[in-house]
Amino acid sequence: METQRIIEFPHKNMDKRPRKRPRLTWDVPPPLPPPKVLPALYCVQEFGNGGMPNYACSSMFYGAIPRTGSPPWRPDDKDGHYVFAIGENLTPRYRILSKMGEGTFGQVVECFDNEKKELVAIKIVRSINKYREAAMIEIDVLQRLARHDIGGTRCVQIRNWFDYRNHICIVFEKLGPSLYDFLRKNSYRSFPIDLVRELGRQLLESVAFMHELRLIHTDLKPENILLVSAEYVKVPDYKFLSRSSKDGSYFKNLPKSSAIKLIDFGSTTFEHQDHSYVVSTRHYRAPEVILGLGWNYPCDLWSVGCILVELCSVSNCYLTPFA
User: Fold this and answer.
1) pLDDT along the chain (323 residues), means of 10
2) Does 170 lie in the same domain as 191?
3) In this structure, are 201 and 305 located in the same domain?
4) Does residue 38 sit within a domain?
5) Is residue 191 domain-shared with residue 305, that is, in the same domain?
6) Of the candidates 147, 174, 201, which is a domain's last residue?
């Protein structure tokens, strides 16, 4: 089927989903078995306990994969997820360092960009049509946001995208943990009200920025809000007493920087598109969506309100009171 690159989508055509774009195929299944490799000296990369690469050379290793080469072709798992190993390459440009997370859409891996010499996060989408189509929509939204978000302070920045072995891969800047992950690792202790106020200000500014572009996020939740930095500080938490604490204090973590960015635009919708379907994760879903009354920009604001209440009182929901 003939395809063409679409530079800009007029609003009247934005509801024609899915959008087709030319595939940038980096790798295809080998048509024939690879030829035998004669004995030679190869350097094999291994990762030690400290996470730093070590290199061991051997003349008895056949068919070694060079650092800038592609790994052997493997079938996807039963759910369509890409199967990889730490230390392998995702195209010659990106080397996989660790797995950062997994969701219904696919997986997120931390990679080293051999060209730019920087760490990036790559979203590897499942090789299923509906998720591939959603990924192409997300790419269009990310590129539109990047053109208007001067300085990249509101939304995560897209670095690149490509189609690798039937998986759409989206390259992002490397950010810190999500608000949900930070809370979870902090035993779901609530944030101070001043920090919540600052997070709310940034969140409202980011949502207003999207609404000015006639975009509705539709899936705002703590999992889709990332701290820019992973650094944190330990502070005493006098609100909760510990049986093992003699002085009555209890320590909790707080982010060192309050800067945040929005992520996950796979469900983002234009204002004029069909709004008859259900949106938002259940805990952050607006009443008009639940009642089937139709929804628009306010559904994002309802989600923001739910998030701010959760950040203030999350510990009351998750922590078991002492007997």
Assistant:
1) 45 42 49 46 37 37 49 89 94 95 92 96 95 93 93 93 96 96 91 95 97 96 96 82 54 93 92 86 95 94 97 64 35
2) no
3) yes
4) no
5) yes
6) 174
Q: Catalytic residues, which ones? A: 219
| 275 close to 296: Cβ distance less than 8 angstroms | yes
Based on the fold, state whether residues 162 and 194 are members of the same structural domain.
no
User: Residue 157 sits in a domain of what CATH number?
Assistant: 3.30.200.20
Number of domains in the chain: 2
The 10 Å Cβ neighbour count of residue 178 is 20
What pLDDT is attached to residue 241?
Answer: 55
Q: What is the structure's pLDDT at 273? A: 83
Tokens of 297: 């920009």
Residue 126 lies in domain: 66-174
Is residue 136 within 8 A of residue 123, CB to CB? The reply is no
Q: How far is CA 52 from CA 47, 114, 243, 249, in A?
A: 6, 16, 40, 38
Residue 8 lies in a domain: no
Tell me what pLDDT residue 303 has: 98
pLDDT at 67: 54
